[in-house]
Structures are given as C-alpha cells and as structure tokens.
C-alpha cells in the first residue's frame, strides 16, 4: 500500500512545471547595443490579463490588441554613455524625440540624461498665429544625479530608488503675447521607486501577430512622481499663459508602471501603465520586440540568418539563409516606413544576394526578411554606394 501511494504522488511532483527565477547582473549584458528597437503599443479598448505580483507566475500578453511596429534605433552615443535608447517624450501636450543616455556598470543600468533633437511645433491651432511656434532646442538634458533603471543584482524582493532634477530648454514665439523666440525652460523634479515584485514566464505577440515563445522575466513595479515648473525669460511662466497651455505651475503627476525584464536587454520586454497605486487597472502597454526573432524562432538558433556587408558599398546585399526549406521574402524600408524595394530570395540554404535597384539612394534603411507571415530578421543597414 505504501509503494502504491508513492507511485501516485511521484508523477505529480515530477511533472509540475517550475519556472526559473532569474537574476540580472552586469555579466548578463553585452558590451554594446546597436540596431533596431521595435515597439508595439496597445490599442484603446484592449483587454489585459491578470498582472498581479506573483512568483513562478505565467503572464500571457499575446492576446493584446496592438499597433504595427514602430522603429527606433539603439546607438552607441558616446564613450561616457555607452547606450542610447530612442524614445518619444512630451513637453506640455506636444511630443518630441530623443535618445536616453544609458550606461551599464557593475552596480546597475543608469540613465544620465537625454540627447534631444531640434523640434519646431506649430501653435496655430492654439493661438491662430501663423508663425507662432514652440521650438525645442538640440541639447543634452542632463540629470542632477543618475536615474537607476535596474540595480544589480536584481532579483525577487530587491528595491531601489532615484531622485533628480532636469531642465528642458525651449523657445516660445507667440506674436499676440509679444514673444519672439523667448527663451524658457521646464524644470522637473523626479522621484522614482522600483521594486522587483515577481518572476515567472511571459509571452507576447511577435511581428506576425502570433504568440511568441515563453520567456523568463522579472516583474519590476515602478512609481514615478514628477513635479514640473515652467519658466520664460528667466521668470516663472505667466499664469494666464499657463492656462492657455492647460498647465499648472508646480503640478505633480504620478505614474504607475510594471516592467518585465529578460536577461541581457536594456529595455523591458513589456512595459505596462496603470491608473493608480493598486496596480489593478492596466490601461496601456508597450511591447519591445527587438529580440523576439532571435530568441523565438527555434530553427534559426543553430543556423542563423546573416546579412552582410554593412555598410553596403556595392550593388549587392549578401544574405546567408538557414537550412529550413522555406520560401524567403525581403523588404527594404526607409526611415519614413516606405517600402523602397521588395522581392523573393533564393530558397536554397547558403548565400543569396539582393541586387539594389539604381534608384535606391544612400542612407539608413531597415531590412526585413520573412518566411511566409513569420518575420525572421529585421536589422538596420546603411547603403553608401
């Protein structure tokens, strides 16, 4: 009877699925990050799964309704700041783009500031002035102290925090108010608190809109509190003009977020925004799918798809195809998202070539290679013939 009970219990124990808890440390990360960061944002009205903090959890995000991919670049920005993560930021109600200055040290991943590009935003719909505009200047917006993205070693139960100031410079032109490139700045005081609240496995949608493989992740819960103050011509912004921009001097905003990190990635696999501190009501998510191709497509792991040379100085792009007997297609896409050239590749394993058309100009492009509906490769490629 005792032996019979042992046989009943043993299979249940043996086949119980145990996920692996991961720990993030400097040794998990590459020396540099170059290439394309591909994002998918959820559409309004999507239904989220349960994302409560848990250990040995399973979070399935593959049912979310999301957009087509949006592409940004990772670049090595300088010797001081090893990584640059492109992103969209906001001043008042207007968007601008910049590269976050990131660095990986033995104690963690840190953000030191943002390299911001010059943007001029028309204010015509707000002021009716044909030449009225808000100009965000090219600048390095540095933080008074580094923002800790991840503190090493990061594992379940760890927590860390950041507290810093930053100034974003701009120029304001509103003819009715007598401003012509008037210098101003937004001063932000940001306090961030991070806690590793869970671990388990997650899957998301891949490029084709299908469920990806399951990935080991750490769940990091984040609270970000920001106090913004606005200045113009060296003095606090006129209260009447603040109301025109729907702003409040010294306004405090609090953001509640969960990030799900995989080993070796500067950005999280999934970033989810919540309405309040209970983290019970998600309303928006961003999926970073830049590594899904390499991790999720099993037949490419031992026979990787390779593209060279880069930059391309002649008329051909060489592609080494893996051995899987499928039909391969390619698209060459410019920075605006327009398909410049497309076609089929030789389905035989080995080296095949893409012959560039004469009207393909020099510049930066994305090369996408797929088998059927499954995107198997995407990468930035420079053409300089």
Total count of strands: 23
Note the total helix count: 4
Give the N-terminus to C-terminus distance in angstroms. 80 Å
Number of structurally distinct domains:
2
The average pLDDT value, as a whole number, equals 83
* Helix proportion range: under 10%
Unreliable spans: 1-17, 293-303
Report the order of strands and helices: HEEEEEEEHEEEEEEHEEEHEEEEEEE
Q: What composes the largest sheet?
A: 16 strands, mixed
Helix-strand makeup class: mainly beta
User: Shape from CA axes?
Assistant: globular
Q: Using only CA atoms, what is the Rg?
A: 24 Å
Strand content: over 45%
Question: What's the helix and strand layout?
Answer:
Layout: H1 2-14, E1 35-41, E2 57-60, E3 70-75, E4 83-91, E5 94-105, E6 108-116, E7 119-122, H2 124-127, E8 133-136, E9 139-151, E10 159-174, E11 179-203, E12 215-232, E13 235-236, H3 239-244, E14 251-261, E15 270-274, E16 282-288, H4 292-296, E17 306-308, E18 316-321, E19 328-333, E20 339-345, E21 350-355, E22 363-371, E23 374-383
Parallel strand pairs: 2-11
Antiparallel strand pairs: 1-3, 1-16, 3-4, 4-5, 5-6, 6-9, 7-8, 8-10, 10-11, 11-12, 12-13, 12-14, 14-15, 15-16, 17-18, 18-21, 19-20, 19-22, 22-23
